[in-house]
Amino acid sequence: MELQSLIYLFVGVSFTIYFGLALWTKASSTKDFYVANKSFNPVFNGASIAVDFISAATFISLCGAFLSFGYDSFAYIIGITSGFVLLTILIVPYLRKMECLSIPLFFEKRFNSKLLKITTIIIVVLVSFIYISAQLKGVGIIFSRIFQLDLSTALLIGMCITLFYAFIGGMKNIAYTQIAQYIIILFSFMTPIFFLTIEFTNSYLPQLAIFSKSAIYEERYLIEVFEQTLNDYGFKSFSEFNVLNSLLIAISLSLGVASLPHILIKFFSTPTVNDARKSSFWALVFISVIYTSISSLFILSTLNLVKKTNSVEYDAFINNEIEGNEGKWLKTWEKTGLVKFEDFNKNNKIDLKYENNISELSINPDALSLLTPEIANLPNWVISLVLAGALAATLSTITGLILIIKTTISYELLKENFSKNNIIARVIFSKLLIVLIIVLATLFYIPNYTILQTVAIAFTICAATLFPTLVLGIFYKKINKIGAIFGVISSLFFTLSYCIYFLYINSSSNYFFGISSEAIGSIGAILNILITVIVSKLTSKQKNINESIDFTQHKE
User: Fold this and answer.
1) pTM beyond cutoff 0.90
2) Which residues contact 530 (CB under 8 A, 6 or more apart)?
3) CATH code, domain with 435
4) What is the rounded average pLDDT of the residues 437-464?
5) Is residue 529 part of a domain?
6) 389 in Cβ contact with 182 (< 8 Å)
7) What is the C-alpha to C-alpha distance for residues 18 and 168, in angstroms, rounded to an integer?
8) How far apart are CA 494 and CA 482, in angstroms?
9) Nearest-CA neighbor of 77 among 291, 393, 256, 263?
């Protein structure tokens, strides 16, 4: 079947499956809406959690991030995976013990402070909003390729479809659809890597490709060939490594993952605390299958790009006149604006290294993962499967984030302002709120930032504000509400000020001590802890609300 028709078929079938499952399992109550009525076993819940992490940031952007940042990109993998350990050990059991369905509810119960609750709600909404904006960019990129449109137009289409998808149901529908989505995502993500692994190495396991000998480069180790390729063609060498910034990014992401609102709520979908822990374990297993293959995907994608495009005659390439190397994809992607060829030396050839390490072929980092199967001339069904899988990963995360915002505001902020007889008004307001959030998130962007980097900003805000207060609130009885309020607000102001300054005012990347915006959450977390502890001691006469409760003890 012709490629474009096959893409429409795969994406259409995917949508039918997702929407059908969503309508079939639609939530019928507020509790059901929040936690799927505690009906999920650990394996299924682990798959649901995994899908929220295998979002556009992972599926679409992480491969290109390696191309841009080199070894610094490993900080993202280390940070995200280690965050699950913190989540399992330090956070989940104790929130489950208190039956706090959200972070704002926990803070209200622990500190008896409406101001802290409202501040936390603002943070949850802000973090989710930034996260959504990154996912919507991913949706735009996917639809840009599907319909061969410029990114701006594709974003509008993606926005409309996202609105439709977000209106379908509650947390219960998400959990069921995500199980199906994980299967699709796994096959769509891993299939092209298997093809490339077999072509470029003597191994059949993508996880081992990086350590294998090359099948086409004189039996040299693939990592050796890759490093030479980076140097030869002006890519950022993996030898360029900022240890301090990478370490702080990993810490920020780890703390951020451990306090992500839309992930924490997933652990209330299991019957017991022990099942919640098992869910975290299974989520880590499901995530690891994909994350352990990402470095191989990046290496294989880069080598594949060089092999297929360097020094190739442009006209013959895009007209599929080169035997065994079809290049029609380049003409297709040029329509999107995400790929651009500029013939600087006027020789009608694609030179990946022209002058001053400038390439005549520019590729948006967020497009590299989706491009790889087309560059490699893989079967049409593989190309279509990758697009369908990327869409599944992106839409599932968007839906979970939207529901978190909706429920946080509707059921935690507005419930007190609407009478019980005014439920309809509250529902209408929530629907309007979803529309507003998606529209604004579509318009929001961080200049020159990839999807992965944008998501990292959301993580770093969580790391600076929510995580320290959660841990101190659980394990340190002497923390009072005044200390908690000062700690959260101070760290929020510090982190946002730093990010806004270097993202929008001074984008020259001349960071203080080399600490990027994605890494500043680590410093914000330290600031939060210091201020919270110091202020709590200075205001020790302030009664510590619920001090009699031992938050560190829980029942299975």
Assistant:
1) no
2) none
3) 1.20.1730.10
4) 91
5) no
6) no
7) 10
8) 18
9) 291
| DSSP per residue, 9-49 | HHHHHHHHHHHHHHHHT---SHHHHHHGGG---HHHHHHHH
Terminal Cα-to-Cα distance of the chain (whole angstroms):
54
- Picking from 23, 125, 137, the residue whose alpha carbon sits closest to that of residue 446 is 137
- Tell me, what DSSP letter sits at residue 208? G
- Pure H helices in 201-221: none
**Phi, psi (5° rounding) for residue 201?**
-135, 175
Residue 521 lies in a domain: no
Each residue's pLDDT tens digit, 389-427: 888 888 878 877 887 887 777 776 666 655 555 667 767
Residues 333-358 have pLDDT tens digits of 999 999 999 988 888 999 887 666 67
Number of domains in the chain: 1
> How is 46-111 classified by DSSP, letter by letter?
HHHHHHHHSSHIIIIIHHHHHHHHGGGGHHHHHHHHHHHHHIIIIIHHHHHHTT-SSHHHHHHHHH
342 is a domain residue: yes
Q: Is residue 538 part of a domain?
A: no
The answer to whether 433 and 407 have CB atoms below 8 angstroms apart is no
Return the residue matching tokens 């996917």: 142
Rounded CA-CA distance 80/298 in Å is: 18
- Separation CA 329–CA 322 (nearest Å): 13
Tokens for 180, please give them: 């199906």
Which residue from 278, 39, 54 is spatially nearest to 172, judged by alpha carbons? 39
The domain of 390 spans 3-203+234-292+299-460
pLDDT, tens digit, for every residue of 91-131? 877 777 776 667 888 888 888 888 898 899 999 999 999 99
% of the chain with per-residue pLDDT over 90: 26
DSSP-derived secondary structure for 242-286:
-HHHHHHHHHHHHHHHTT-HHHHGGGGSSSSHHHHHHHHHHHHHH
Q: Of 225, 133, 125, which Cα lies nearest the Cα of 503?
A: 133
